[in-house]
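As a representative case, we now present a protein record of this kind.
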Amino acid sequence: FDPRHCLGTHCYGFPKTGPHRLRFLLQSLADLRETLQTRGSTLVVRKGKPEDVVHDLITQLGSVSVVVFHEEVKE
């Protein structure tokens, strides 16, 4: 989770992730984790700036050869 998504937007000051969107996201992640566990896998969820969290996770794992990500489309 990127905490910057809970801050106001630059245009109107509304949070990018409000309570309803956050609830949906948490429920979706819980469902994904459950589905992965039934298939013998798991889901890692971290909170922080992605550029920091991914770096720390790679350092912890030590044997990462590929990192794939999705960049949000900006209007």
